[in-house]
Design a protein that fits this description.
Blueprint (H helix, E strand, L loop, with lengths): L14 E5 L2 E5 L1 H6 L2 H10 L22
Antiparallel strand pairs: 1-2
Bound molecules: zinc ion.
Zinc ion binds next to helix 1.
Length: about 70
């Protein structure tokens, strides 16, 4: 695989980005220059937000089997 930025050949990209036009791989230096490594680390540290329940919000559906 070649680095998408500097075209240097590499065995394994440090960061790979999937786009509509294909898979782009970046070497560790280019990934660092472009801020991709930080972006990936941030994305891994903060995975998709979980749904939070608010305490001051009433439930829409109240399940009451006694009635
Ligand atoms: Zn590169």
């Amino acid at each position: 695989m070649k680095c998408a930025r500097c075209s240097r050949p590499m065995i394994e990209p440090a960061v790979s980005i999937k786009t509509r036009s294909g898979l782009y791989g970046y070497g560790p230096k280019c990934a660092a220059v472009m801020g991709l490594i930080q972006a990936v680390q941030r994305a891994r540290a903060n995975p998709a937000r979980k749904q939070e329940t608010s305490e001051d919000q009433m439930d829409w559906i109240e399940d009451d089997p006694s009635t």
